[in-house]
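Open question from group meeting: does this chain pack into something compact, or does most of it stay loose? Before anyone orders reagents, we agreed to write out a predicted structure and look at it together. Recording both the input and the output here so the notebook holds the full record.
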Amino acid sequence: MNYHHLRYFREIATEGHLGRTAERLNVAQSALSIQLRQLEDRLGYALFDRAGRSLVLTEAGRIALDHADRIFTAGDELLATLHQNGDAKPPLRIGALSTLSRNFQLQFLKPLLAMDACKFSLKSGNTDVLLKDLETLALDVVLTTEVPQTGSQFQFAAQLIAEQPVYLHGRPDRLEYDTLAMLLAHEPLIVPTESVIRAEFENLIATLGIRPHILASVDDMAMVRLLAREGAGVAIAPTVVVADEIASGVLKTAAFDLGISEPFFAVTLPRKFPHPALMALLAGQGAVAERGGA
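Structure tokens returned:
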């Protein structure tokens, strides 16, 4: 594929007239016609039909123009990214741990929503897959609840962007106990699986010397919220997870301090050409903890 031919084709399609295009580009009309014919020979299809003195795109021509627009837009984005200028900006690519609170993700994204010109993509997955995408430059940042472990050849930077206390949340009638130990011993509990919260919860019940009734171990905070809202049990989660239900009065937070908190990290890799929107998003977002591996 000769991209000079493709660029000339795009210009002809925009103008709709071979002569005017040649005049605007300051090239001979015959030379432009040869370039177009060579592209059509390469593709194996006619790209234009003649309508009087004008040129009208064929179906193959419309398909070719769509691809040409994307190719040259990507080229403009490449130049803008490398030179950190221009109006064409690539989307900010965000990865989020699939178990991460949707409400927290929305809070993180709110500044981007205020940036009208900033597009973004959001991918959910497990930590290993997301960090691999970060290493291969398929993602710009990964949102997670843990600092990446050592063992990678890349040195991740994990910025602490929030740390939220964890409480017990449930229907008001499920929280009428005088002590934390009594509540944990008598109410069915909805707890997250294999997380910072779960580890701290196990330490708490060991300290209290109780054996709770764990109704459900759930790896999705959205499901933790739904089960609590349905009155299935008492959920152990950051308040942001059930903020809407608390505001509406469906759920209430128990007045007991668990001494548990969940951190939220934005994990990045040092890059020579970071996304400008990411730099603005993370600026001043709290403490930075770096941990890498060889």
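Observations to bring back to the group:
The first strand starts at residue 48 and ends at 51.
Residues 59-83 form the longest helix (25 residues).
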